[in-house]
Amino acid sequence: MAFRDKAPMPAGSPHTRLIDRMARGLVPVRPLGSPLRRVLGWVLVVALPGAGLAAVADLRGALSRHAADPALVLAAVGSIATAITAAAAAILATLPDRDPRWALLPAPSLALWIGASVSGAGAEHEVPISLSDACACVGFILGLGVPFALLLAAILKGGYALHPSLSGGLAGLAAASAAASILGLFHPFAMALNDLALHALAVALLSGAGAGSGRRLLRASA
Amino acid sequence: MPVQSAALSGEASLSAAMQAAQVGDAAAYRALLRDCVPVISAMARAKGVQGAALDDVVQDTLLTLHRARATYDPARPFLPWLRAITQRRAIDALRRRGRRPQEVHEPLAYEARADDGPMPGDDLERRERATSLAAAIAHLPEGQREAIEHIALRELSLDETSTLTGRTKGALKVNFHRGLKALRISLTSRKEGTDA
């Protein structure tokens, strides 16, 4: 070894005792798969319920709504891209030697999503939707987002998050974005400002819950 | 250049040892960790960690390395991976130190503040307190003593202490609370004995 002879350690030092204990209890570990493969795995599993729900959705109506409103198309592209990039950033954040700035990966798509949604909702001057409809949207995002987030957390547990709150927050954002993307198929009315605010609240809730529970969930296996 | 090639061969041997450790080679792992100790010390020192905190950072980093060993990608160099972990642990140590009371650099506050320097006998009293605490801890049963030393004095987490001592987290919690209770009784009775 290159460094061994330079600084021999005393046999009874605390470091030696710790090293001996860790070496005695060593068990083989399987190196993690590539981040790309793990992101694609999550996207594929998330796409399955998405495809199932698309089969029962009014796709023709959804397509015509999107064709009539470019802001809706941009918002959909932004939400899908945010889901994928946030999942990638969350997975990269569990690899200690990756640049922490990867956490900013979802920022451009998130900005596109927010910008397109706000401009769409603001330009149309839509009548605020009923509270029950808005709450149904929130319920949809949370209902679908929580299992998506737990699935991603299971993938993240294979790694080691040096910043578990950040990884958890990104996982929550990815899950909420994926759920909001699927919600677009079932959203039979244009986005009103109160609806948009409740969508944002649901996304923020999931991201915040991910950040809050990141330390407990991601360090539990460590 | 000879220095560069030595560094590269060091990097290659560390990487090879880590790969061997990932498949369960305990001897290679032990050698790797021993080689890492001076490297971690140097990295932590470069981040500004000094004194006794340096040993804590080395131990925290070794523990993190152990838990995170599956995240090492053999296709990538080893030292940047180790450096990222060490720097994180060094920052944690510096933050812990930063949370302790620090001197305030404010001229007015400095002028107006009453002299809170040590009174005659303070040092002696502090030493006596430390001695009696050390004696009380030394009299605890081994499990309680280890729990108090690692969790209370070294501020290690339950996970880290569990790895270090080989005890379960539940056993550590029980030992910690029993140890605190025993210390409280022991120190109180000593104080009452002194007062009397």
From TrEMBL, chain B:
Keywords, ordered alphabetically: DNA-binding, Sigma factor, Transcription, Transcription regulation
Segments forming domain RNA polymerase sigma factor 70 region 4 type: 132-183
Entry keyword annotation includes Protein transport: no
Residue span, RNA polymerase sigma-70 region domain: 34-100
Cited InterPro entries: RNA_pol_sigma-70-like, RNA_pol_sigma-70_dom, RNA_pol_sigma70_r2, RNA_pol_sigma70_r4_t2, RNA_pol_sigma_r2, RNA_pol_sigma_r3/r4-like, WH-like_DNA-bd_sf
Domain of life: Bacteria
Record-stated family: Belongs to the sigma-70 factor family. ECF subfamily.
Protein name, entry field: RNA polymerase sigma-70 factor (ECF subfamily)
